[in-house]
Structures are given as C-alpha cells and as structure tokens.
Write a structure and sequence with these properties.
single chain; 433 residues; mainly beta; 5-stranded antiparallel β-sheet; 5% helix
C-alpha cells in the first residue's frame, strides 16, 4: 500500500496479525488482510478535517470483532468488524490479477465513460469496456503479449478524445497506449527528474506534459521525443492546458505561470499572477476564458484570463480538494473532496455554490467523467469506485442520491430548526460545514 494524501496516517495490526487497519480520519480507515493485502469491508471512522487528531485511537478488540477509533479531544467510536473477518473474501487469487479490490493500483475511466483503464504492479495497462464483469476481466490476464513497463504503474492520464492513455511507472518510465486495442505505442522514455507527480494531454492529444517536482517535460506523443524541459524554479502544484500551445502552471508558492510554445517550437515561461497562498489545483474552463484556482487553504477562486484578475465571489471548501472538473459548457464546476462532490456555478462575478452530493471513495488516480444523458440532453457526472467486487461508474449527479441543496444560510436555517426541534435542551448546537 502506498501513502497518498495529507493527514495523520495510522496503522494497527490485529492481535493475531492476520489483519491490519490503515488510513486517516478524513479519508477513513480500511481493513486489509496481511497475507495478500486484500481489502475487507468498507471505509469507516471518517471525521471532520478540523478535529485535532493528536493521540488518534486505532485498535482492534482482543477477539478482532470490534475496532476503536477517535481522539481524546473528540468522540470515540466502536465499529463492528466485517463478520467473520476470516471469511471475508474479495476478488481472486491469481499470479497476475488485473484487478484487485485492495485499491492499490491506479484506475481511471475514459472521458466518455466507455472504458475502464487499469494499471497493474507488473507494468501493464489494461483497457476493458465499462460494465465488463470481473470473470471476463480476469480472463484477459493471460492475453498480455507485449512489454509495458519494468516496474509497477503509479500514474495514468487519458486524452480528451478517449483515444490514448499515458502511464508512468515507479522507475519514471513513461509510455502511451491506444484505447482501442490496448496496445502501447512503439516508444518509451525516462523522466530524469523527481518522481512523476501527474501527466496531462494537450487539447488535440499531440502533446503530453509530465509534471515532476519543479520541472515539466513536454513529450511528442507520436514518437516519444522530449520537446522541452521547463524548469519552473518552484514546486509545481498543478498544470492545465488551455490550448495545444498554452499550458498554465500553478506552484506551491502561489505563483501562476503561463508556458507558451513559440513559432520555432521553443517554450517560454512567464509569471502572470501571484496569490497569498500556494496553489493546490487549477483547471482551465472548456472555452479557455477563465481558470479555477484552489489554494492550499482549500479556497476556490475564478481567475479571469483576459483581465488577469480574480473574480470577487470565492468558494471555501470544507476539506482538502482531490479534483476540479467542468461540464461540457463550462458553466458548472465540480469540486471533489474525500467524501463529497460539490457543484458550483461559474458566473462573471465568480463561483457560487449550488449543492453537494455524498460520493463513494474514489479509486487511486480516478477522476470524474461525464456521460451523455439521452433523456435530459445533459451530462451526468460519474466517478469510478470499487463496488460489487469490481470498478463501477457511480452517478454523482445528485438525482436520487443523498444531496444538500441551497445556500449555506438556507441549509443552516433548515437544519438548525430540525436539531432544535429534536433536542429542545440544546440551545446552541455546533454545526460543521
């Protein structure tokens, strides 16, 4: 298992040593079998990010049927373990298994939701149609007749046209694969820098930007040639293509840069804005007229590119951001945290929160995709998650799901009334975002 994300990470073994529980309070804890790392049961023990986690409690009972979580500064809770733990079998036990519900390998869906892409520890990328059952997927394990990477795949990205997938392995090798056919292009390249943090295709899919520490490597997708290495000078927080020759770069020091390709194919980098906090994430709208910036304090802002300024209306997210995504038009923005997908409207005045939907735990590397809804003519946001023993695209549109609608003041007024009615002795209930 590889640590991923900020937080006070903890691990505890059961008395027999057959099981381990690992995670942190914001994303939740999960139980794994120590013999093969298989996931047992759902996440549990999620708490608010603002709770002091000093002295976090995490332990099994002597009979391994209960778990204790919590903190001396907050409520402690007992959780019933999956019963019986020894009989909780998930997945298959094969020498080369494409899919493992232990969620230790990157998984993503193509932008149209038509395919699921899985990177495995043997260095292969597998592309299977959405909705394929686990037995059919496992049957493909013996079909690999090409060399992918020499080490485990840790990062993946897919282009906007759902034609190609990029993969980065633990040895910093990078390859590109065809979605149709699932075969790799005849080249491989090594990134001579820090470990690869992320990758992104240009709008037309001809370029691949590979982010590693303070450097960005531009790769020609057709032949794998390194066109340029951009040394930003600051740790890069995120990147986003606006057009084929325009790449926006946000740094952990709070600087927004624009990398632009010149007529002679060289790349020039210039600073265009600087904020007070570091940039955690950024994304360019589909029309390329504005950027959504999220800083290290989880404050989301709308940067107007033509004016070089930030719009007035901001959006404070309640916990660490995992992803920013746009609908096809760009008027609706989706912010995904560990347990929620928040929807906001992008207007000339800035970002305005609409509603939030409780979302399942996403798989490593997974991101929101949008599938056309023929009934409404709109698009439905889908999130790849582990469900029913395999990858499922879960609808997080809010239709028929547990969702919160309305402004913050409206929600507070409604729920404070309900809490007061249920507990008349409580005069000042504590409400968390």
């Amino acid at each position: 298992l590889e640590k991923s994300g900020d937080g006070d990470w903890r691990i505890a073994f059961s008395p027999s040593g057959q099981f381990a529980v690992a995670g942190h309070a914001v994303a939740g804890f999960q139980i794994y079998r120590t013999t093969d790392g298989r996931l047992i049961g759902p996440s549990f023990g999620m708490r608010d990010a603002n709770v002091d986690a000093n002295g976090e409690l995490l332990t099994f009972s002597s009979d391994e049927q209960l778990l204790l979580t919590g903190s001396p500064q907050d409520a402690s809770r007992l959780w019933r373990a999956p019963s019986p733990l020894q009989g909780a079998e998930v997945g298959f036990n094969q020498p080369h298994s494409i899919w493992s519900p232990s969620a230790d390998r990157p998984v993503l869906a193509t932008p149209d939701g038509a395919y699921i892409v899985i990177g495995d520890p043997q260095g292969h990328v597998h592309v299977v149609p959405s909705g394929t059952g686990l037995p059919e997927v496992e049957a493909k394990a013996g079909d690999v007749n090409f060399i992918g990477h020499a080490s485990a795949i840790v990062r993946m990205a897919v282009d906007n046209g759902a034609k190609r997938v990029a993969s980065a392995a633990r040895d910093n090798s990078v390859r590109v694969w065809n979605v149709t056919g699932g075969d790799p292009l005849p080249w491989s390249t090594i990134i001579d820098a820090d470990p690869v943090d992320a990758m992104q295709f240009s709008a037309d899919g001809d370029l691949l930007a590979v982010r590693a520490g303070a450097a960005i490597t531009m790769i020609n997708v057709a032949d794998g040639a390194k066109l340029a290495v951009l040394n930003i000078g600051e740790t890069v927080g995120d990147i986003s293509f606006a057009a084929d020759g325009l790449l926006y770069v946000g740094t952990r020091e709070g600087t927004l840069h624009l990398a632009q390709r010149a007529a002679d194919d060289s790349w020039q980098v210039q600073q265009i804005w600087r904020g007070e906090s570091g940039i955690r994430s950024l994304s360019v709208s589909p029309r390329g007229d504005f950027l959504v910036l999220v800083d290290t304090d989880n404050l989301a802002s709308q940067f107007i590119i033509a004016d070089g300024r930030v719009a007035d209306a901001h959006l404070q997210l309640p916990s660490d951001l995992h992803e920013v995504a746009f609908d096809a038009v760009g008027s609706r923005v989706y912010f995904r945290t560990a347990r929620w997908v928040h929807r906001a409207t992008a207007a000339v005045t800035g970002l305005h929160w609409n509603d939030a939907v409780l979302a399942p735990r996403a798989l490593p590397g997974a991101s929101l995709v949008f599938r056309q809804d023929d009934a409404t003519g709109g698009q439905r946001p889908l999130l790849p998650a582990a469900r029913n023993g395999y990858v499922d695209l879960v609808d997080v549109s809010g239709d028929g799901a547990a969702a919160l609608f309305g402004s913050r003041d409206e929600l507070l007024e409604e729920w404070l009334g309900r809490v007061s009615a249920s507990h008349p002795a409580v005069s000042e209930p504590v409400v968390q975002d």
